[in-house]
Amino acid sequence: MDSKITEREQWTSRIGFILAAAGSAVGLGNLWGFAYRSSQGGGAAFVLLYVLIVLIVCLPVFVAEMALGRNAMKSALLAPVKLAGTNWYPLGILFFIAPLGIASYYSVIMGWTADTLFHSLFIGLPSNLTEAETFFSSISSGKSVLIGHLLSLLLSALIVSSGIKKGIEKVTKFFMPILFLIIVFLAIWATSLSGAWVGYKTFLFKFDFAELRNPQTIRNAFTQAFFSLSLGIGIMVTYASYLNKKSNLPKLSIGVASLDTLVGLMAGLITFPIILTFGLSDAISESTVGALFISIPTALGSYGVVGRIVAVAFFALAYIAAITSLVSLLEVPVSSIMDKYGFKRQKSVWLITFFLFLAGIPSALNINILGTFDSIFGGVLLIFGGFLVSFFMGWVVPGKFNEELNVSKVGIKTTRYLKFMTRWVAPPIIAFGLVISLFDLLNGWVN
Ligand code: PHE
């Protein structure tokens, strides 16, 4: 056991951690989830709720999750047990299962993304909605889905198999700056579209107070906040277990959360102008996949050469963002079985990858199964995990939480604030969000 602790890898620098964690956070959730969730009727009320949840609830949970990982210096599966004994093994198991559940369908959507990128580069894009339906069914069914799913898994597995410094850190350091450049470029380009202003208005200013009480909007905001920040399922536990004791956890979490929220908002400033310029606003809110894979390719497909170039940039951006997220989803179960069974990294990576390929087949073949996986693993389970993490650090092992804040020399005021939030504020608010989300989920199933 001890030898494993000393062998534990570490990030080479603080920026290495920030980019890797931001790499996990920034993903299809920012580009795909943000657009369709904000267009499902919530509008600006959704954006406001989302930002409030990030600030009030997610930031303390983020620090709590990191404190858990860094204090235990263990994989997510074993960290809760190390701190609080075997009664808390179920929390470790939740951390183990939830990333597997998400990764299984996430790589399927990555396959669609790669296929769309391929079409933008070599074949061409649909130029009206009728063509778009055929286009979407061609990228989301048949052999090509399975190939896309497999290739995305293999690519991420290769990165994870090279370890923390040489794999994850190196790749995220390379990709994240490119990603920011592309997104800034696209956001600037989008200002030139004739529907830019209508797009911004729909996204940011169409405010309807009644939406704040709509269960669907509340659920969307909670889901988006936790999903987009990769919170509640042990990702940050795992990544923080590779941090040194000096790093200041609250500062790091603010860095990562700001980058992620910025990218989410910028993505909205890109997708909404595109969609509204080409009069496709109905197509986006009708289905969960509409925004990215139906409206965007169609809009850009009808915009000549420039549209094609932008499509290449957009779907390359989405794919790059998704790789660094899938990598983090793999790292959690991989490090967990290394820790638990003493397996070598290589062996763990290939075992988990093989399992994920099989687990993703139902989602690859049936989009409804994918949707169900997303609402369970990418929705309620994450929110539930967030609740447990804040309860755990706030009430079960508050001393360890304190210890982590002390070693990273966090000021007394911030420490008090974070302890107060993880004890008294985050758990009840998340519990409320969880109940509403469950209610909305079941309601959708019944109807
Ligand atoms: N945050 C990632 C995204 O926005 C997805 C993700 C969720 C990754 C949960 C890890 C854990 O796409």
Topology (SSEs and partners):
Layout: H1 2-7, H2 14-25, H3 28-72, H4 79-84, H5 89-123, H6 129-139, H7 143-161, H8 164-190, H9 196-205, H10 215-228, H11 235-240, H12 249-277, H13 281-286, H14 290-301, H15 304-341, H16 345-365, H17 367-396, H18 398-407, H19 412-446
Helix pairs in contact: 2-8, 2-12, 2-15, 3-9, 3-10, 3-12, 3-17, 3-18, 3-19, 5-7, 5-15, 5-16, 5-17, 6-14, 7-8, 7-15, 7-16, 8-12, 8-15, 9-12, 10-17, 10-19, 12-14, 14-15, 15-16, 16-17, 17-18, 17-19
Q: What does this molecule look like?
A:
The protein has 447 residues and is mostly helical. The chain has a single domain (14-446), classed as Amino acid/polyamine transporter I (Up-down Bundle), CATH 1.20.1740. It has 19 helices and no strands. The chain has helices at residues 2-7, 14-25, 28-72, 79-84, 89-123, 129-139, 143-161, 164-190, 196-205, 215-228, 235-240, 249-277, 281-286, 290-301, 304-341, 345-365, 367-396, 398-407, 412-446. The longest helix is centred in the first third of the chain and has 45 residues, at 28-72. The chain is globular, with a radius of gyration of 21 Å. The relative contact order is 0.20. The structure holds phenylalanine (PHE). Residues 24-25, 27-30, 102, 227-228, 230, 233, 235, 325, 328-329 line the site of phenylalanine.
